[in-house]
Amino acid sequence: MMGVLKVSMMQVLGFVLLFGALASPTWAKVHHHTFVIEETNYTRLCRTKSILTVNGQFPGPTIYARNGDTVIVKVYNRASYNITLHWHGVDEPRNPWSDGPEYITQCPIQPGGNFTQRIDLTEEEGTLWWHAHSDWDRATLYGAIVIHPARGTTFPFPKPHKEIPILLGEWWIANVSQVLANLIQTGADAQISDAYTINGQPGDFYPCSRKDTFKVLVEYGKTYLLRVINAAINNELFFAVAGHKLTVVGTDASYTKPFTTDFIMITPGQTFDVLLEANNPAGADPSAPCRFYMAARSYSGAKNVSFDNTTATAILEYTSSASAPAVPPQLPYLPGYNDTNAATVFTAGLRSLASKEHPVDVPQTIDQRIIITVSVNLLTCPGGTCSGPGKNRLAASLNNDSFQNPPIDILGAYYHSIAGDYGTDFPNRPPSYFNFTADMIPQNMVFTKRNTEVKVLEYNTSVEVVFQGTNLLAGENHPMHLHGFSFYVVGRGFGNYDEKKDPLGYNLVDPAYENTLGVPRNGWAAIRFRAANPGVWFMHCHLDRHLTWGMDTAFIVKNGKGPQERLLPPPPDMPPC
Ligand SMILES: *[C@@H]1O[C@H](CO)[C@@H](O)[C@H](O)[C@H]1NC(C)=O
Ligand SMILES: *[C@@H]1O[C@H](CO)[C@@H](O)[C@H](O)[C@H]1NC(C)=O
Ligand SMILES: *[C@@H]1O[C@H](CO)[C@@H](O)[C@H](O)[C@H]1NC(C)=O
Ligand SMILES: *[C@@H]1O[C@H](CO)[C@@H](O)[C@H](O)[C@H]1NC(C)=O
Ligand SMILES: *[C@@H]1O[C@H](CO)[C@@H](O)[C@H](O)[C@H]1NC(C)=O
Ligand SMILES: *[C@@H]1O[C@H](CO)[C@@H](O)[C@H](O)[C@H]1NC(C)=O
Ligand SMILES: *[C@@H]1O[C@H](CO)[C@@H](O)[C@H](O)[C@H]1NC(C)=O
Ligand SMILES: *[C@@H]1O[C@H](CO)[C@@H](O)[C@H](O)[C@H]1NC(C)=O
Ligand SMILES: *[C@@H]1O[C@H](CO)[C@@H](O)[C@H](O)[C@H]1NC(C)=O
Ligand SMILES: *[C@@H]1O[C@H](CO)[C@@H](O)[C@H](O)[C@H]1NC(C)=O
Ligand SMILES: [Cu+2]
């Protein structure tokens, strides 16, 4: 009896071990979520207002998965707005249908409607996020996506004691839909926000906020992984933790060489994985108070552009402080709001890990270089009735094309060969060459034109895009985001890009691999990627007022020859227009 049992248990155990060992690296798990979008009352800064939420939560739910997994999200729109959701930084191989930008890959999910989206986490590992991609709904519709190493693998650094998502956001007391409506109606700049937030809370320096300030408890001697996400609408942010260094180990779900710094500069759309060692000497003394602020405030390089200059805080508290006197925490050093030098030094420190386990695949040669000017512009306003500079309307452009959304989505129009929705003449070069970054630019150059032009790429083209910032109206750091791909940031500089000299200085060895990059104020940045993902992929500035003004376009990547190189068919429940 015992013998039989023993044998059978050993067989079972052997089977499990063998099967587990064989299957685990490729055993992708499928996670199912339901996201119900609804309007919920939240109180911040002494005022209650109705905001858009997912499952009643703000910030929204965190999606946890592992590299290699698939996440299926059933989205049910119970709110009274047209809404779409985007999985920021996920490549979505061959499946732009689930990507989300309104009128680019889908028509919005209308009130009462549903749409089931599929998120395939193939190469991504680290931190990403999801957010609304309709109007400015992402002001409150956002949450983290935490992607752990694939089964059977681990982090390329010692396992942290705990992981803490840090979502940086931006809050208006006013109705954000109304803020956007006013911007569109008047042609003037956006009303600035009233607060920044850390995990939904403004912190101690704002009215009625102190009791809800976000707090992290840490143990002396342990290391924590902060997963920092900038979900703000219109502001790049400096972020730091008093009394502690930060070691960046990843960005945009790709590992970096460990890089120790006092602060980070994070643009909307970006994420940083940051190790924080709870090693402040005061933390070892139970009688000493040991509390520190983590803080975020704007990096605003543009001259003469108003912005929210308030500071959001959260508290890092050592567990040893439980019985210590409650003295106010220290504030960290943060660079000045216009410290472009500090932003540049931080950004220049980022390098891909480029290890055996996490190799890079930087295109060493390119088939095509596309040079794109990134500008803030004006449009003339009929009857001079706008409230922008000179009674004109503020606008923005890429290569002097100010993008307007078409009435039906470009992906659907492309897939079903419907003509007239968009053009394919997005220029490969700036339409005119001038000193892009000069202090004074002839006033007539500032005006732009609206259209809906995209760029078509053959499958597997090795592409280089050079973004050239301009000083038209106002030079500014623009966080350019590409859907469907991550890219290597091979070069960056100030002034005008020199096509002969600047490529000689590229980093083709270990450049950072990102999905959003800050194009330096009055400078340029060059990215490389291989267009091996068929579909329609949006590219835009992640400052939403620039996006609204037209700083966007899309790539259509054509099908390749093989069956695995073709766009998948649309899901049956694509939202109708
Ligand atoms: C939300 O707040 C508004 C005004 O503050 C109030 O009129 C409304 O009844 C509240 N809604 C809910 C569901 O509590
Ligand atoms: C969307 O899903 C919800 C919940 O399952 C259901 O009540 C609703 O009828 C669906 N809407 C449509 C338009 O099918
Ligand atoms: C917010 O503004 C939008 C656009 O003007 C409007 O449709 C909506 O009813 C407003 N929401 C609230 C809660 O006032
Ligand atoms: C700053 O902006 C204001 C308002 O748009 C404008 O009147 C003024 O001329 C600008 N100043 C400079 C130096 O550009
Ligand atoms: C920041 O805001 C304060 C008022 O809250 C103002 O006095 C100050 O000039 C502002 N600074 C900048 C750089 O805008
Ligand atoms: C930053 O702003 C300060 C004051 O607002 C100003 O004195 C300084 O010149 C500015 N620095 C740069 C680099 O623009
Ligand atoms: C372009 O403008 C910048 C800033 O005014 C100036 O330093 C530079 O010399 C100009 N370049 C050329 C080629 O004129
Ligand atoms: C952009 O296009 C407009 C309209 O055609 C033109 O007036 C303007 O000079 C162009 N600007 C640049 C920088 O090419
Ligand atoms: C893409 O092109 C590269 C370089 O020509 C080649 O090595 C690779 O196999 C191609 N990939 C696909 C999927 O066709
Ligand atoms: C919602 O989306 C539908 C489909 O694109 C469109 O016809 C309708 O005008 C939109 N409603 C609003 C308020 O934008
Ligand atoms: Cu921008």
From TrEMBL:
<dbReference type="GO" id="GO:0005507">
    <property type="term" value="F:copper ion binding"/>
</dbReference>
<dbReference type="InterPro" id="IPR008972">
    <property type="entry name" value="Cupredoxin"/>
</dbReference>
<comment type="similarity">
    <text>Belongs to the multicopper oxidase family.</text>
</comment>
<keyword id="KW-0052">Apoplast</keyword>
<dbReference type="InterPro" id="IPR034288">
    <property type="entry name" value="CuRO_1_LCC"/>
</dbReference>
<dbReference type="Pfam" id="PF00394">
    <property type="entry name" value="Cu-oxidase"/>
</dbReference>
<comment type="function">
    <text>Lignin degradation and detoxification of lignin-derived products.</text>
</comment>
<dbReference type="GO" id="GO:0048046">
    <property type="term" value="C:apoplast"/>
</dbReference>
<keyword id="KW-0186">Copper</keyword>
<dbReference type="InterPro" id="IPR034285">
    <property type="entry name" value="CuRO_2_LCC"/>
</dbReference>
<dbReference type="Pfam" id="PF07732">
    <property type="entry name" value="Cu-oxidase_3"/>
</dbReference>
<keyword id="KW-0732">Signal</keyword>
<feature type="signal peptide">
    <location>
        <begin position="1"/>
        <end position="28"/>
    </location>
</feature>
<dbReference type="InterPro" id="IPR034289">
    <property type="entry name" value="CuRO_3_LCC"/>
</dbReference>
<dbReference type="GO" id="GO:0052716">
    <property type="term" value="F:hydroquinone:oxygen oxidoreductase activity"/>
</dbReference>
<dbReference type="InterPro" id="IPR033138">
    <property type="entry name" value="Cu_oxidase_CS"/>
</dbReference>
<dbReference type="GO" id="GO:0046274">
    <property type="term" value="P:lignin catabolic process"/>
</dbReference>
<dbReference type="InterPro" id="IPR002355">
    <property type="entry name" value="Cu_oxidase_Cu_BS"/>
</dbReference>
<keyword id="KW-0964">Secreted</keyword>
<keyword id="KW-0677">Repeat</keyword>
<keyword id="KW-0479">Metal-binding</keyword>
<dbReference type="InterPro" id="IPR011707">
    <property type="entry name" value="Cu-oxidase-like_N"/>
</dbReference>
<dbReference type="Pfam" id="PF07731">
    <property type="entry name" value="Cu-oxidase_2"/>
</dbReference>
<dbReference type="InterPro" id="IPR045087">
    <property type="entry name" value="Cu-oxidase_fam"/>
</dbReference>
<feature type="domain" description="Plastocyanin-like">
    <location>
        <begin position="37"/>
        <end position="150"/>
    </location>
</feature>
<keyword id="KW-0560">Oxidoreductase</keyword>
<protein>
    <recommendedName>
        <fullName>Laccase</fullName>
        <ecNumber>1.10.3.2</ecNumber>
    </recommendedName>
</protein>
<dbReference type="InterPro" id="IPR017761">
    <property type="entry name" value="Laccase"/>
</dbReference>
<feature type="domain" description="Plastocyanin-like">
    <location>
        <begin position="426"/>
        <end position="560"/>
    </location>
</feature>
<keyword id="KW-0439">Lignin degradation</keyword>
<dbReference type="InterPro" id="IPR001117">
    <property type="entry name" value="Cu-oxidase_2nd"/>
</dbReference>
<feature type="domain" description="Plastocyanin-like">
    <location>
        <begin position="163"/>
        <end position="320"/>
    </location>
</feature>
<dbReference type="InterPro" id="IPR011706">
    <property type="entry name" value="Cu-oxidase_C"/>
</dbReference>
